[in-house]
């Protein structure tokens, strides 16, 4: 019974194939080439669009030594108010949102994908996972406790600036001197000069 059905199906398939072949032979070759051309062109167009979409990265990576204030800054940018009582992060903190300062703006505002990457030295290799999508890097420095950490900060900064992804894509980097609300904070010019000297 089953064998009979399979045979019947085979015969039907052969019939349809023959019909298709006859139909293709009847179609003028120009029409056939035009149809193939349209299919190829559409595929090419979709591939290009997908490639461009991937390139338009909107990720901003917050990085810097542990305790420099990245997590506080992340919440400040998202909610407008600092979250007190942050502890050393052991996992990247990320989110896509419209910056709090832009929520009151009229017109079209684009959301950003912000990544707060922990400063713990053991996690540094994981930073490479985020850099390929980065549109910009913010390197946060503690302006109060700067001198004891100057060497470590400059080594970390040098490490980032010489990464193949950063060099090749020319990813812009902003040096952010944090905790300037304290009177003992060093000036941005002093911090920049010291970092340049160390490097
Ligand atoms: N005075 C002052 N203190 C700040 C500021 N930003 C952060 N802090 C304090 O700095 C400490 C560390 O802040 P975090 O945001 O947790 O530091 P982090 O860079 O995320 O540290 P890791 O997660 O270990 O990489 C906290 O006690 C914050 O309250 C600031 O602008 N001014
Ligand atoms: Mg943190």
Structure description:
It is a single chain. This protein has a 5-stranded mixed β-sheet. The protein has helices at 2-26, 29-55, 70-79, 146-161, 164-169, 188-198, and strands at 59-64, 93-97, 112-116, 134-142, 173-178. The chain starts with a helix and ends with a helix. Helix 4 (146-161) crosses helix 6 (188-198). It folds into 2 domains: 2-55, no CATH class; 59-198, P-loop containing nucleotide triphosphate hydrolases (Rossmann fold). By secondary structure, the chain is an alpha/beta fold. The chain binds guanosine-5'-triphosphate and magnesium ion.
CATH architect. name of the largest domain? 3-Layer(aba) Sandwich
Compute the separation of the termini in Å: 83 Å
Task: Briefly note the CATH topology name of the largest domain.
Answer: Rossmann fold
Give the tally of β-strands. Answer: 5
What is the number of independent domains? 2
* Alpha-carbon Rg, integer: 29 Å
CATH superfamily of the largest domain: P-loop containing nucleotide triphosphate hydrolases
Ligand catalogue: guanosine-5'-triphosphate, magnesium ion
Unreliable sequence segments: none
Mean pLDDT: 88
* Helix/strand/pairing category: alpha/beta
Helix fraction bin: 40-55%
| Helix run count | 6
Strand ordering within the main sheet: 2-3-1-4-5
Strand content: 15-25%
Largest sheet: 5 strands, mixed
- What would the principal axes of the Cα set say about the shape? elongated
Question: In sequence order, what are the helices and strands, one letter per element?
Answer: HHEHEEEHHEH
Report the top-level CATH class of the largest domain: Alpha Beta
Membrane topology: Single-pass membrane protein
Subcellular location: Endoplasmic reticulum membrane
GO biological process, one term: protein localization to Golgi apparatus
Keywords: Endoplasmic reticulum, ER-Golgi transport, GTP-binding, Lipoprotein, Membrane, Myristate, Nucleotide-binding, Protein transport, Receptor, Transmembrane, Transmembrane helix, Transport
């Amino acid at each position: 019974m089953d064998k009979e059905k399979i045979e019947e199906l085979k015969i039907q398939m052969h019939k349809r194939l023959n019909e298709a072949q006859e139909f293709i032979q009847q179609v003028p070759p120009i029409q056939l080439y035009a149809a193939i051309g349209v299919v190829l062109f559409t595929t090419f167009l979709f591939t290009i669009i997908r490639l461009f979409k991937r390139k338009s990265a909107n990720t901003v990576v917050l990085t810097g030594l542990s305790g420099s204030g990245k997590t506080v800054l992340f919440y400040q940018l998202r909610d407008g108010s600092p979250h007190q009582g942050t502890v050393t992060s052991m996992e990247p903190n990320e989110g896509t949102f419209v910056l709090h300062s832009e929520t009151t703006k009229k017109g079209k505002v684009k959301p950003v994908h912000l990544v707060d990457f922990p400063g713990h030295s053991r996690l540094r290799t994981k930073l490479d996972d985020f850099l390929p999508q980065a549109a910009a890097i913010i390197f946060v420095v503690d302006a109060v406790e700067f001198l004891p950490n100057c060497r470590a900060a400059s080594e970390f900064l040098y490490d980032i600036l010489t990464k193949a992804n950063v060099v090749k894509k020319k990813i812009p980097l902003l040096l952010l001197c944090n905790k300037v609300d304290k009177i003992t904070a060093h000036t941005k010019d002093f911090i920049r000069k010291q970092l340049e000297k160390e490097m």
